[in-house]
Amino acid sequence: MNVLLINGSPHKEGCTNRALKEVSGALNQEGIKTELVQIGNKAIHGCIACGKCAETGRCVFQDDPVNGILDKMEQADGLVVGSPVYYASANGSLFALLDRLFYAGKNFAYKPGAAVASARRAGTTATLDALNKYFTIAQMPVVSSSYWNMVHGRDASDVEQDLEGLQTMRVLGKNMAWVVKSL
Q1: Looking at the DSSP assignment, which residues form a beta bridge with residue 34?
Q2: HSE toward the beta carbon, residue 178, CA cutoff 13 A
Q3: Is residue 107 over pLDDT 80?
Q4: Letter string b/e over residues 125-137, b meaning 16 or more CB atoms within 10 A of that residue's CB
Q5: 176 vs 183: CA distance, rounded Å
Q6: How would residue 145 be classed by pLDDT, with cut points 50, 70 and 90?
């Protein structure tokens, strides 16, 4: 069993990564393998609704990680998507990636999904709401924690101080493991 984690932040070692590492650690303790994919800081093309992915199962754009993540999702038993909060919403590059990924993806149904948001102060619940819609539209059960799946801080060292947020990430990992094993 394995869970794919997508870091939607352009900062490889930032707050979102720190939260996802905590989720990953909890999953690993439960015997679930994880792979973390960093979307990076290169531009990700938005979906143009050309419909070619319906024919081929692949996105026509080859210059970013979408098709590689599609391959990984075929093998994954679950998905966790993490994003920093920019102007009370997720990173725009992550939205572009998710639009194309979920439009082209055919085998997401019944795989559990969870969203993680990272912010200095606010905007996390709106971000979680927007990200969770991808899962619900794709018929994916949404995994929760003991609180909203969020951490707070300006940088990863600040997130280390967010003990409640880190605990929430660990519970999320345990809950994701339980759902994956149950399915």
Answers
A1: 3
A2: 10
A3: yes
A4: ebbbebbbebbee
A5: 11
A6: very high
